[in-house]
Amino acid sequence: MLSQMVTNQVGKQRAVQQDVDDTTRICEFLRMNPPNFTDSSVTEDT
pLDDT tens across 21-33, in order? Predict the structure, then answer.
């Protein structure tokens, strides 16, 4: 019974850590600067 309780607690801690990791990734993604396109050309670069 004790091992089940410990296993459940570890599982909960991992789930919380996963949520934190996901939130951090989302925040980092939203902080990224989008590329700026200032000109367009229909010719191919040489």
Answer: 888 888 888 888 7
